[in-house]
UniProtKB/TrEMBL annotation:
GO terms for cellular component: cytosol. SUPFAM superfamilies: PHP domain-like (SSF89550). It comes from candidate division MSBL1 archaeon SCGC-AAA261O19. InterPro entries: PHP_dom, PHP_phosphatase, Pol/His_phosphatase_N, Pol/histidinol_Pase-like. This is Polymerase/histidinol phosphatase N-terminal domain-containing protein. SMART domains: POLIIIAc (SM00481). Pfam families: PHP. The lineage of its organism: Archaea, Methanobacteriati, Methanobacteriota, candidate division MSBL1. GO terms for molecular function: phosphoric ester hydrolase activity; zinc ion binding. Residues 16-92 form the Polymerase/histidinol phosphatase N-terminal domain.
Length: 242
């Protein structure tokens, strides 16, 4: 039976961190160290989501099986669920990603992240439009569960987009069942994006983008933003992946 939160308890206790990196990509620690940190912070679950291989700091294709086996072993020994995931890189304007379907089908959670945008646009508004179209093409095409740090590409690109753009994005997220991440590292997306997503019924996901054990589960910004936009427990992705 799902746990029932009291009003104050929900304000104070973040329960899951669905975006964590280890030494398999650009993190600094073993998966077991990140899980130990999550347990010590009182989380009820964590997802290991190292970068896919197309990013310069991503996991080597030859290490993917090793990473998956490592996470499986850690999960078997841990006191909390440890989800096997990846932060797949969006690598083309048409929505391609760098993880093949055979691997995707073996994962508990797939985070989609856009780090290199295949665009020649120089004007911020045009760049923002290319970002939006790329992300929406990915959402239509790929089996991803969470969109990482939405609209962050060296800066917050959402400020260059219209309200209609944001509504189209949010409606697509609802149709595809993709959650939108509240990201600790970049404090993204903006309050305006989150308010639109919440109004349209988009699920929200909590992720630190942690690269060290000390960063795991530090969801202070997310909990503050949740309060500001009036999100409730049912608006969040919490136990859906367990």
């Amino acid at each position: 039976m799902p746990r029932v939160f009291g009003k104050e308890e929900f304000k104070m206790i973040p329960e899951f961190d669905f975006h964590v990196h280890t030494h398999y990509s650009d993190g600094l620690s073993e998966p077991v160290e990140m899980v130990e940190a999550a347990t010590a912070r009182g989380l009820r679950g964590i997802a290991i989501t190292d970068h896919g291989p197309e990013l310069s700091v991503g996991i080597s294709p030859t290490k993917i099986e090793q990473m998956m086996n490592d996470v499986e072993i850690v999960n078997g020994d841990a006191d909390i669920p440890v989800l096997l995931g990846i932060e797949a890189n969006i690598i083309g304007l048409n929505g391609e990603i760098d993880i093949d379907e055979e691997i995707l089908n073996r994962l508990d959670v797939v985070v989609g992240g856009l780090h290199n945008l295949a665009s020649s646009a120089q004007i911020p508004k045009a760049l923002a439009k290319d970002y939006l179209n790329t992300v929406m093409n990915t959402m239509k095409l790929q089996k991803i569960d969470i969109l990482a740090h939405p609209f962050w590409f060296h800066e917050d690109l959402s400020k260059y987009l219209s309200q209609e753009d944001m509504e189209d994005f949010a409606k697509l997220a609802v149709r595809t069942g993709i959650a939108i991440e509240l990201n600790t590292k970049y404090h993204s997306p903006s309050r305006e994006v989150l308010t639109t997503c919440l109004r349209e019924g988009v699920k929200l996901s909590l992720g630190t983008d942690a690269h060290t054990p000390s960063e795991v589960g530090d969801l202070t910004w997310q909990m503050s933003m949740i309060k500001k936009i009036g999100a409730k427990k049912e608006d969040l992705v919490l136990e859906e992946f367990l």
